[in-house]
């Protein structure tokens, strides 16, 4: 008999053993989870788990496996859901996503932190969030604010980039990815059976891409930012 989502989330929480201090806010909880996911394994841009669910990702990470930005974000998003936080993975993609062969996209998490900050982008692989005028930024907000934003770690300390990880300048590395924003309509426990179509925000002067890196056909519905970033019903 297959497990229910609740049973799967219980298994994930038990496996992670994350300590959340009593009285923590949603934002504090999300950042603790993000920090856990950032340190759960090392990055390998070519390796994938045997199954695409967060329990398998964490089990294989415990055994020493290394994974991609996809797995960092999928693990973190479902851990946030397990602790009662609205979260999803968001694909950020370059303008030339159709014609590039490799490295045209990056996967981050966006979680709802409440009315003060709204939807917040967390780059789990990098271990950072972005802040502008003391407000944490969504991926779409960051497209406009990146030059004026500070990049900080999940512990609130200014981000010091590991040597060579993002070419020496994370903001410059990230900028080209802040062109297309796409997300699933529903976060699936196994990302390999991700429901289609995805929602996408497209710049006014452009059209949605039809393919990802030449070969992967995309099924996308263009929406306005207010729909993409709709406030969750139970917020």
Task: Provide structural commentary.
This protein has 235 residues and is α+β, with helices and mostly antiparallel strands. 27% of the residues lie in helices and 20% in strands. It has 7 helices and 11 strands. A hairpin with a 3-residue loop joins β9 (211-212) and β10. The radius of gyration is 17 Å and the shape is globular.
CATH structural class: Alpha Beta
- Looking at the chains present, what oligomeric state does this protein adopt? single chain
Distance between the termini: 33 Å
Count of separate structural domains: 1
CATH fold title: C8orf32 fold
- Strand adjacency order, main sheet: 3-2-1-7-8-11
How is the main sheet built? 6 strands, mixed
**Low-pLDDT segments, ≥5 res:** none
Task: Please give a handful of descriptors for the protein shown.
alpha+beta, three-stranded antiparallel beta sheet, C8orf32 fold
Briefly say what this structure is.
This protein is α+β, with helices and mostly antiparallel strands.
Blueprint (SSEs and pairs):
Blueprint: H1 5-16, H2 26-38, H3 54-62, H4 69-82, E1 87-93, E2 105-112, E3 119-122, E4 128-132, E5 135-136, H5 139-145, E6 150-153, H6 170-174, E7 180-184, E8 198-201, E9 211-212, E10 216-217, E11 220-222, H7 225-228
Parallel strand pairs: 8-11
Antiparallel strand pairs: 1-2, 1-7, 2-3, 4-5, 4-6, 7-8, 9-10
């Amino acid at each position: 008999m297959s497990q229910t989502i609740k049973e799967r989330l219980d298994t994930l929480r038990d496996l992670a053993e994350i300590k959340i201090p009593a009285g923590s806010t949603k934002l504090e909880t999300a950042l603790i989870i993000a920090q856990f996911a950032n340190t759960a394994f090392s990055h390998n841009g070519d390796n994938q788990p045997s199954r695409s669910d967060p329990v398998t990702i964490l089990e294989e990470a415990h055994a020493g496996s290394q994974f991609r930005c996809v797995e960092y974000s999928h693990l973190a998003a479902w851990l946030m859901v397990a602790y009662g936080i609205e979260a999803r993975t968001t694909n950020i993609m370059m303008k030339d996503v159709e014609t590039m062969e490799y490295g045209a996209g990056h996967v981050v998490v966006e979680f709802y932190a409440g009315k003060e900050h709204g939807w917040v982008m967390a780059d789990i692989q990098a271990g950072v969030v972005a802040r502008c005028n003391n407000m944490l930024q969504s991926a779409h907000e960051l497209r406009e604010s990146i030059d004026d934003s500070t990049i900080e770690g999940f512990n609130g300390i200014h981000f010091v980039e590991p040597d060579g990880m993002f070419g020496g300048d994370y903001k410059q590395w990230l900028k080209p990815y802040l062109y297309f924003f796409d997300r699933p309509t529903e976060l699936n426990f196994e990302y390999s059976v991700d429901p289609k179509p995805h929602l996408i925000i497209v710049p006014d002067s452009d059209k949605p891409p039809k393919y990802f890196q030449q070969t992967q056909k995309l099924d996308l519905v263009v929406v306005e930012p207010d729909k993409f970033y709709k406030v969750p019903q139970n917020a």
